[in-house]
Amino acid sequence: MQPPIRMYATATCPYCIRAEQLLLDKGVVGLDKIRVDLDPSRREEMMKLSGRRTVPQIFIGDYHVGGCDDLLALERGGRLAALLRGESA
Prior knowledge:
By secondary structure, the chain is of the alpha+beta class. It has 4 helices and 4 strands. Belongs to the glutaredoxin family.
């Protein structure tokens, strides 16, 4: 069963767009995309949770993936599918 997936993003960030497209290509349903450009308090929330200022910041269940490059590395390493099934990283 797919865990909840949350991505902090902005509308114009090419890395956010690329990360979202990869997740959709992997069959993710119900992506919770949080637009920090529309609500600055959500950026503060993102920074507290991730320790990072940049977008995207992606969480699969309770696991902090990181940004787009981190997501792509999981995919290249063959570990993204397991995370999306709710298995540990």
